[in-house]
Amino acid sequence: MGIPVVDVHVRFLLPWLYAETLEVESAVTESGRSSFTVNHRFQRGQGLAAEIAENRVWSAQAASGSGGLESKAAQGALKEKFGAPAEPATIKK
User: Fold this and answer.
1) Dihedrals φ, ψ of 62, to 5°?
2) What is the DSSP code (8-state) at residue 72?
3) Which of 29, 34, 44, 73 is the residue whose CA sits 20 to 30 A from 17?
4) Mean pLDDT, residues 23-27 taken together
């Protein structure tokens, strides 16, 4: 099973340098039968530097044996963990 990114939207609002430290908030904001959306907010000081929304799909190897992937419904503990939108998790580095 995998969770490939199938769509991404990015807004860059402030410039920053490679050596700068940003604060990142990430949260699962939408969850469906086989897909979910993760939003990321990058803060530089008091300003919002960037926003990213990524759509991902629960998937597994296709039953046809083609070597491709097909979407699958999230199961058990995964659905419980990601079934409802959560408060953003903040990671400071």
Assistant:
1) -60, 140
2) -
3) 29
4) 92
